[in-house]
Predict the structure of Histone acetyltransferase type B catalytic subunit.
Amino acid sequence: MADWTSDSNDSLLLSLVRSQNDKEALAEEETYEEFNPSFTYPIYGEDEKIYGYRDLVIDLRFASGSLEQYLSVQYSEKLPSTSTVDDVEDILSRFIPPGYHKDEEAFLKRVEADATFFKPTGQLIYSYTRPAPNSSSKGKRKRTGNTQPLEPESEDAIEFQVYHATWDTPGFREYHRKMQILILLYIEGGSYINDDEDNWEFVVLYEKRKRRDSAHTTTYHFVGYSSLYPFYYYPERIRLRLSQFVITTPYQRHGHGSELYKAIYQYIIKSPHIAELTVEDPAEAFEDLRDKNDLLMLLAHEQFMEEAFGPQEVRGAGGIGRARKTVRGEGGDQEAPKGQLVPPANKPWIEKWRKDLKIAGRQFQRLVEMLILLHLDPSDKASMKAYRLQVKERLYRFNFEILAQMEEDERHEKLEETFQSVKADYHRILAFST
């Protein structure tokens, strides 16, 4: 059977298809078609193998904006129909809405029609710009070091927009059914949500691109999305849990995930009815993205940093620096006043800021520990000891049920081992965040 076995991850090709006029606006290195998913086991089984074909290609295309779908299965040879031969199209069709295109010409006509007709639904909550690949301003920005964002109206700018939607948003339920297969293809352990549950909220990221015509016609192209679920938070607010988070392959490793996360966080900060943001079972890659963006937000928050480490906080590029031990006053150099995050940190102060910034408890404690570590003087043994005890206290409380079953010596050894591992990971996160 090995000669008739195909890897379903390699066989499935995904495409975000643009109209011909939209393709003409792309730079040579831009490609949005024929990329593979990360996972297919929710569809084709745990071993991600398909039996009965040679040279199998599963061609699943989406109109880049409307996500209208086309599915075609091609192969050079197929075994006679038996119980061992997988019905590739029938299996996949159970995971996408009915009515998908099977005729390529009809699908491409639909892409052309949808290109200018499709517009995002919901409320625009966030936007940012990027220079178009090979644009003149991109080269100029590199030469001059200019980091100011391009104006959306600039001919060299690509604008990205984030829209907030719910099931009540006209047409969104049907749109969600087209995009939800990406959850299975990109999130390990991902599953479809129940669209009969009314409370779900969504944020969807689009690329808004100008054509090279006289009218500079704008079209929208799907980039990724996140789903959010609200829980009651005493006495009269909600806690919003980030459940799913997807950026499609062509847009990965370009900072769009960070921008989508920023959009979610800013939406929460601006919403008085939301108490805090939590994350459901995050993958390691998302944890890193979250840590990096939360850290950068705190480092750029002048009031927080001044209270945390004192008015002597050194601010260089990116608002980052080590706190000075002395400040110059009228009587000469004096010992700098301590901030609230000099270990042992001020717990009521931490909790006050945690609530103001609407960050979940464990996440904020980790961020505080990273910031303290960033500013610690390794030669200050008293501060290093206080920091170690502060982190171990949190680790002990978080892992109490396991640690409580250990003998005292074993418990101390395990806590120290975990502390060293956590500290090493903090250094790793700080290295790429600062």
